Q: What sequence folds into this?
């Protein structure tokens, strides 16, 4: 059974999101991602990036706030929201004792994709990700890169409108990382929306349309790299001066460090 | 006293420190503050075991080494020894395949044969350390009631541990050479399970075939066995004589066992590293034959979940060996049934009463293990949680997967029972259903996310769940046994078992969020 969701301007709308463990992990976060956008979420360790994404994916229940995915209230109707989303974490979620083909069949079953649609899509994805020669081998002997590619194929088999990725490139070699990045770009080109956390700032800088900087559970800055540079302002001049550079061409790393330092000072 | 780095003593200290901390973590579930409670529980257990020992073996303290005594002691020794071999094979397989520190050892410029010699010796010592607390109370009681001659039994346990380790290592290495590292792990696990159970089951089958009961003693004390047994002076009885306090026999058994262990260490230790590397290189992926010509099957999320669970259960070597253990214990009841079907005089009707609790107990235990794998041992919890399937559907599909396996395993036996005794079959069906449901529910209440590979340690995560599952299975087995004889009398054990399950539910952790 295929569920048709009408096109909406925003793939993700998060408002006043709160999650507390021993201390607030996410503290009144507001975030909007446009449909067809590649959005990167960066921030220091413990800033609340993963917690935010897990709440969006329906893996954690927020203490307060609202989440709308492609216009669907994800807290009111989580099943409908999950139907248009895919979640990929840094630890590939696959089964050692299943082959990639069997894994994709299982995921297609979970998302109720008709077999006549799922089988050719699986074949295409396996081919696209260079997994076809290993399609019937069990995943137990696969490298981290291959496992991540299997997980990525699983995430794409139901053609999600919003893909949520938590550090998808961690531990991947250059070849696998390039392949994953290519797949993600293709998805955005085909109209999909991606929200991704990463510690590799060059990736965010090169791939993302917009970047959100999160610290202490709050979104402290957001925009294109140029907009972020402007927001960083004086702090960025000081950071760049330390590195004997020019603030006009400051990298995302400089900008990020300046923004986080300013936030720490304000806190 | 410090030992020089790189010496065998230094490695032994390292191994013992790791083994001790591992044991401590297992007993306290990683919480040091529980240590006092664990020590008190062990002390209570040891005292209790002394009472059990007095009740079971106290009257044999003054036994004389005649043929009947030697046969009975030898059988007990053989049974314990087989269990030790089974456990030692488990440990050896883990030593080959565990990568926790092998990379470090193999990459270091140390003499690896020393490390592996120590490691094999450690397996032997740990076998003895596991057996001594269990056998100790029985030996203590025999010493108190029958004199110091029984102290030789402690020496016998040490000898048995050494010999069991030597055989286990030798057998595992032989498997490596014969079938290769890739298949050895699975085969060794299955063989370990079979060895552990085979002797008891063999005796039960022999008892059924000869005497129509499930009693093992009936075979050991039979005239046929005594007539076939060698003369009392034969070396076959050395272990039994050693246990009875014969110093020469004990010296002989100890010398032989240590010689065997030393020989195995001398042959295997220098090559152990090579075997470990082969085991690590054996990760070559198994190929799954694509069903339905590679086409996807039409399916719903629930069916996809059920099918996934069944595929994973089928491909899990540990589970296969565990299931095989359960199946092995079902062989004696199956033989009893087969004999009953073959016997038109109905002389076995009393024995069917024994079948009911055996089947119910086995179903409860099997369901507990399967439920843990399906519910807690989910390797991709985020994938399932992020799928557009309501959580209750996921849980239901997993429960159906567990109950489906139980139905497949027990249906043939219950069908056989129905042919000879419909009433007993009906009670058994009810008992199996309730025991499996209770074990599955307990696993559901106490679920904690873990990798399937942590199956061995599932008991550590919750002691309450472990005990509740065991008492529930025993309780439902007892209830079914009583119900098979008199339905009204079964109310009392049934209520007691319900209280056990309810108690487990009350003690189970509740989800924190609304």
A:
């Amino acid at each position: 059974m295929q569920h048709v969701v009408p096109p909406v301007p925003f793939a993700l709308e998060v408002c006043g999101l709160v999650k507390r463990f021993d201390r607030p992990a996410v503290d009144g976060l507001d975030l909007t991602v446009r449909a067809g956008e590649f959005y990167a979420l960066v921030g220091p360790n413990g800033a609340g990036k993963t917690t935010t994404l897990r709440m969006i994916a329906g893996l954690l229940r927020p203490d307060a706030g609202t989440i709308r995915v492609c216009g669907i209230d994800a807290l009111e109707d989580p099943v409908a929201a999950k139907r248009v989303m895919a979640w990929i974490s840094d630890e590939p979620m696959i089964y050692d004792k299943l082959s990639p083909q069997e894994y994709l069949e299982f995921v297609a079953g979970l998302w109720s994709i008709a077999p006549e649609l799922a089988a050719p899509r699986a074949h295409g994805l396996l081919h696209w990700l260079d997994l076809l020669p290993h399609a019937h081998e069990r995943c137990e002997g696969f490298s981290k890169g291959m496992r991540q590619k299997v997980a990525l194929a699983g995430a794409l088999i139901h053609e999600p409108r919003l893909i949520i990725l938590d550090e998808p490139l961690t531990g991947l070699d250059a070849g696998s990382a390039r392949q994953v990045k290519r797949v993600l770009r293709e998805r955005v080109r085909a109209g999909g929306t991606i929200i991704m956390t990463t510690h590799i700032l060059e990736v965010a800088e090169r791939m993302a349309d917009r970047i959100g900087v999160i610290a202490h559970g709050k979104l402290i800055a957001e925009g294109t790299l140029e907009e972020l540079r402007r927001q960083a302002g004086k702090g960025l001049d000081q950071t760049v001066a330390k590195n004997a550079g020019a603030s006009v061409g400051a990298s995302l790393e400089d900008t990020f460090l300046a923004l986080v330092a300013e936030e720490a000072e304000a806190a | 006293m410090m030992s020089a780095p790189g010496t065998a003593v230094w490695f032994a200290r390292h191994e013992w420190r790791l083994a001790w901390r591992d044991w401590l973590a297992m007993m306290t579930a990683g919480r040091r503050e529980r240590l006092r409670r664990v020590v008190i529980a062990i002390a209570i257990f040891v005292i209790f075991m002394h009472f059990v020992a007095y009740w079971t073996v106290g009257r044999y303290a003054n036994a004389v080494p005649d043929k009947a005594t030697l046969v009975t002691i030898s059988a007990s020794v053989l049974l314990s020894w087989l269990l030790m071999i089974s456990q030692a094979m488990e440990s050896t397989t883990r030593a080959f395949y565990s990568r926790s520190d092998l990379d470090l050892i193999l990459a270091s410029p140390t003499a690896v044969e020393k490390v592996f010699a120590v490691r094999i010796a450690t397996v032997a010592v740990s076998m003895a350390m596991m057996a001594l607390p269990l056998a100790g109370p029985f030996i203590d009681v025999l010493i108190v009631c029958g004199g110091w001659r029984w102290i030789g039994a402690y020496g016998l346990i040490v000898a048995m541990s050494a010999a069991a380790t030597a055989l286990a290592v030798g057998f595992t290495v032989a498997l490596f050479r014969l079938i290769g590292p890739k298949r050895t792990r699975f085969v060794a696990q299955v063989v370990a399970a079979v060895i552990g159970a085979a002797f008891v089951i063999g005796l039960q089958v022999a008892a059924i075939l000869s005497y129509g009961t499930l009693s093992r003693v009936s075979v050991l004390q039979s005239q046929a066995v005594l007539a076939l047994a060698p003369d009392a002076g034969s070396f076959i009885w050395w272990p039994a004589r050693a246990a009875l306090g014969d110093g020469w026999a004990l010296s002989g058994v100890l010398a032989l066992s240590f010689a065997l262990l030393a020989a195995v260490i001398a042959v295997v230790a220098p090559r152990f590293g090579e075997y470990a590397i082969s085991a690590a290189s054996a990760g070559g992926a198994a190929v799954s034959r694509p069903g339905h010509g590679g086409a996807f099957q039409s399916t719903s999320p629930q069916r996809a979940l059920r099918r996934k669970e069944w595929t994973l259960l089928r491909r899990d070597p540990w589970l296969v060996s565990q299931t095989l253990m359960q199946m092995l214990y079902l062989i004696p009841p199956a033989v009893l049934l087969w004999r009953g079907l073959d016997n038109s005089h109905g002389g076995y009707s009393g024995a069917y009463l024994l079948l009911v609790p055996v089947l119910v107990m086995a179903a409860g235990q099997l369901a507990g293990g399967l439920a843990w794998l399906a519910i807690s041992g989910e390797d991709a919890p985020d994938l399932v949680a992020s799928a557009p399937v309501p959580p209750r559907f996921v849980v239901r599909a997993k429960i159906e997967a567990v109950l489906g396996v139980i139905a497949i395993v027990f249906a043939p036996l219950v069908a056989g029972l129905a042919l000879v005794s419909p009433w007993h079959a009906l009670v058994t069906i009810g008992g199996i259903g309730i025991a499996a449901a209770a074990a599955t529910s307990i696993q559901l209440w106490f679920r904690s996310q873990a990798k399937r590979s942590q199956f061995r340690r599932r008991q550590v995560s919750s002691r309450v769940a472990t005990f509740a599952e065991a008492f529930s299975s025993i309780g439902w087995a007892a209830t079914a046994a009583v119900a098979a004889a008199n339905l009204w009398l079964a109310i009392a054990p049934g209520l007691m078992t319900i209280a056990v399950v309810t108690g487990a539910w009350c003690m189970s952790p509740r989800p924190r969020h609304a």
Observations:
- Chain B touches chain A through 38 residues (CB under 8 Å).
- Chain B has a mean pLDDT of 80.
- The CA atoms of residues 11 and 115 of chain B lie 6 Å apart.
- Chain B is about 75% helix and 0% strand.
